[in-house]
Amino acid sequence: MAKLVECVPNISEGRDQRLIQAVAGAAAETEGVTLLDVDPGADTHRTVITFVGEPDAVLEGAFRLIRKAAELIDMTRHSGAHPRQGATDVCPFVPVAGVTMEECVELARRLGERVGRELEIPVFLYEQAATRPERRSLADIRTGEYEAWPEKLARPEWTPDYGPARFLPRTGAVVIGAREFLIAYNVDLDTRDRELAHRIALQIRETGRLRRDEQGRVVLDEQGRRLRQEGRLRQCRAVGWYIDTYGQAQVSINLTDYKVTPIHLAFDTCREVARSLGLRVTGSEIVGLVPLEALLMAGRHYLERQGRWAGVPEPDLVDAAVRSLGLNDVAPFKPEEKIIEYAVRGRERKPELVALTCRAFADELSRESPAPGGGSVAALCGALGAGLAAMVAALTRGKEGYEEQQAELERTAGEAQRLKDEFLADVDRDTASFNRLMAAFRMKKKTPEEQAARDEAIRGATEEATRVPLGVLRRSVAALALAETAAGGGLRPSISDAGVAGLTALACAEGAFYNVRINLKGLAGSEFTRATRAEADSLLAEARRRAAAVAALVMREID
């Protein structure tokens, strides 16, 4: 798996488009960096820039961006609705794929050291990269904002982690760190009153608000410290503000762990509190990019609230989330641009096989090139079988006489959708693994060193080319189990569809087995070969047993 790191620098400029593009371009022009999003805000006078790539490429892109921002942005002339402290206000690294949080912490420290040394800008580390507990929170570091730095930097406790301990009026300071995926999320209100929006923020954010007595005075503890009333949502930061561009107030939210407080919970809680204040939530917006899973969670939540099953295709879940959250309220929400997985996928040079039409895929299959081939077709059969199992389950939802099967069929629909998507990914995985194997065979072999390197590359690529169909074979057994459930408890008029689900899943199993076995011929005698062959034999036997059970159920009904 390729290593993929996301970097999300926020710069203190949201109005000058030429300047914004120059700063973003400094990162985008770095080899190995893919620029995903540039999201400026005129009222906040801030732009969120998102790019991804291999760790070292992203590190270089981040340095170039910070350098360009320091050249072009003059903080002495800056003012905006969003808190800020420097030309590049904050620059976090976020693990996406194949990268640990520890690796992102190391990236943050390497970048901080270089920025402090080469650019002579004060650098503070935050979140997972923080060197002391009081600097873990960005809000704590940013207390007093840009204007407070002359006084803060003169105090020993505010010595930067890197760079000079002196105030630079033009550039301010930069905060660099490593964190989990942060979702910047704004909830729209039918009011222009910022104070009302902030009252909602005080109730929902984790830090809550200061406790006050009946006379409105802040309540203190025995040591004279101000007491707080905790907010309703964990891992949630929030403020209220007014955005002139939209002509309405918003609750501006940062969800620092969307698996603890998901988007839909933040939205529903804002709606509940707003209603108690006589306000109405009109929609919401996502600033920057959002993980696909966050919207899938929201889609499932709202479908279930509507009394519907969540075992529907991924695009339907995304659509349910977009509609229910009102993500088109103040600006169009384009999934292909705003969902990080879709954005990365859309920038791949070669189109995916699964994106082709049926005719185009069949045409590509029939050409003289060896890929796509049987492995991709086997995976496609698995996707079709899982899709049919999901369909039969969905058709049974709410039907009279099937009440006892509803829970099991709902589970079947959800699991079948997940398997279907995995099989579809396997269509391209199989072709990609075959292409890597062919590339290994084309390596030079004139010298002993070249021959040894070629042999090792072929061995590794062959093992990988074997693991892909083995994974397909494993999933085919799961797909057959779902077909069996659909055939046994699904809508009787659709039992033939369940039967076809079993047939296509069996074709998937048999085809994947063939591909495992032919690849193992090139790995004779290894422990990997023995273990893989034994597992493949066992899986195929189980697949055939389950396919026979599906066929028996179908024939009993239609004979």
TrEMBL record:
Family: In the N-terminal section; belongs to the formiminotransferase family. In the C-terminal section; belongs to the cyclodeaminase/cyclohydrolase family.
Pathway assigned to this chain's UniProt record: Amino-acid degradation; L-histidine degradation into L-glutamate; L-glutamate from N-formimidoyl-L-glutamate (transferase route): step 1/1
GO terms of biological process kind: L-histidine metabolic process
Descriptive protein name: Formimidoyltransferase-cyclodeaminase
Coiled-coil annotated residue ranges, if any: 392-422
EC number: 2.1.2.5, 4.3.1.4
Pfam families from the UniProt entry: FTCD, FTCD_C, FTCD_N
Domain of life: Bacteria
PANTHER family tied to this protein: FORMIMIDOYLTRANSFERASE-CYCLODEAMINASE (PTHR12234:SF0), FORMIMINOTRANSFERASE-CYCLODEAMINASE (PTHR12234)
GO MF term set: folic acid binding; formimidoyltetrahydrofolate cyclodeaminase activity; glutamate formimidoyltransferase activity
Domain Formiminotransferase N-terminal subdomain, first and last residues per copy: 3-180
Keywords annotated in UniProt: Coiled coil, Cytoplasm, Cytoskeleton, Folate-binding, Golgi apparatus, Histidine metabolism, Lyase, Multifunctional enzyme, Transferase
Quaternary structure, from the entry: Homooctamer, including four polyglutamate binding sites. The subunits are arranged as a tetramer of dimers, and form a planar ring-shaped structure.
SUPFAM superfamilies on file: Formiminotransferase domain of formiminotransferase-cyclodeaminase, Methenyltetrahydrofolate cyclohydrolase-like
Function statement: Folate-dependent enzyme, that displays both transferase and deaminase activity. Serves to channel one-carbon units from formiminoglutamate to the folate pool.
InterPro entries: Cyclodeamin/CycHdrlase (IPR007044), Formiminotransferase_C (IPR013802), Formiminotransferase_C_sf (IPR037070), Formiminotransferase_cat (IPR004227), Formiminotransferase_N (IPR012886), Formiminotransferase_N_sf (IPR037064), FormiminoTrfase_cat_dom_sf (IPR022384), Formintransfe-cycloase-like_sf (IPR036178)
Primary residence: cytoplasm
Signal peptide annotation: none
Subcellular location: Cytoplasm, Cytoskeleton, Microtubule organizing center, Centrosome, Centriole; Golgi apparatus
Keyword tRNA processing assigned: no
